[in-house]
User: What shape does this take?
Amino acid sequence: MSLKRIRSLIIDDDPFIHNLLRDKLQQHIPQVEVVATANSGEEGLQAIEHFKPEVIFLDVEMPDMTGFEMLQKLNAIPFQIIFITSYRHYAIKAIRFNALDYLTKPIDLGELKNAIKRCRAKLGNASENNPLKQALINLKTKNAADQTLILHTQEGSLHIQLSQIIRIEGERNYSRIYLVNQKKKIASKTLKDLEEILDDKGFFRCHKSHLINARHILAYPTRYSLMLSDQTLIPVARRKREAFRDWHDRMVDNPVKTLTQ
Amino acid sequence: MDIKWNTSLLDLKNLIGISRGDPDQILKYLEQFQKLIPPRLAQLQQGLGKKDREMIRKIVHQMSPQLQFFGIEGIGTTITRLEFEYETLPMEELEDLVKHLIINLESALLEIVRIIRTYFK
Assistant: This one.
């Protein structure tokens, strides 16, 4: 069975990435046709208007604007986005927080194939762009507590406002997310994954199995444990005590409001 | 194209992989390196002259994928530090790192020019 052709656009200020991505697509995923390339956000906007691509490979950092800023200039986003970034770029956290597709430079073939596979599944389904819409809302939301974490589960996307999360408990390859009103969700991410995307949003890993939300700390009765708003008592690991105390003092003095996305 | 590449600074396995031995493809990437790197080196010199940390980071960030692709020996740590410690590095150390990068990239450029001359012209 032949797969439907997909029209794609590459927006990146590095001509080397244009070449590399185009060649990798031609060689390994020829159904994805590169209809145009653009060197900046401004050129990208014009190319979107002119070529009406179905998938856009979008550089996170360009000289005239970021990829997110470019998307915010559009009235509608009737295409799928695959961000392109370097592995340790500051934006990677925002991309992962919002469960968006991305490739790291220089392009890894396995990552590329998986991203295209996910895009193909989403094409033609407008609601599948919800994570991107939510990401753009999150970027404008200054208060971390009001931001929405997006996680992919087998049942679909899970959207959880950060203020609703009391704590997260790790269990090998998945995590249990405890919410207000005694609700609970399961995410197929490790506690380490979640720690990485939440540690600048008022969350702290106080124990190998526990990530807690500063907004829900009721009391810090002993050096060994803390009480959360759902009345659970969570241990603070011996080697985390000092770091926890420093973090807790900072949170009390200066609660997290502004976020760097 | 089956060439025993004689390189000391470059690791061309990514280039050989993407080009699948097609000489036109190999040449395309080599010439692109030859074209893109000199102006970026000039920009780095400018950034150094102005002591402009952000400008230096941006140029290094932009070059980094291509440099990784060509597997240039001895600059990995330098690139990482310039990209991620650019705000906090003492200026003298930052300047040393940029100079180290420039020297290595000039040598890499010479190697690319030699490869083009030897195998393609």
The helical segments of chain A are 15-28, 41-51, 67-72, 91-97, 109-122, 130-140, 191-198, 241-253. The interface with chain B takes residues 13-17, 19-20, 23-24, 27, 61, 63, 86, 88-89, 105-106 of chain A (CB under 8 Å). The radius of gyration of chain A is 21 Å. Confidence is low (pLDDT under 50) at residues 257-261 of chain A.
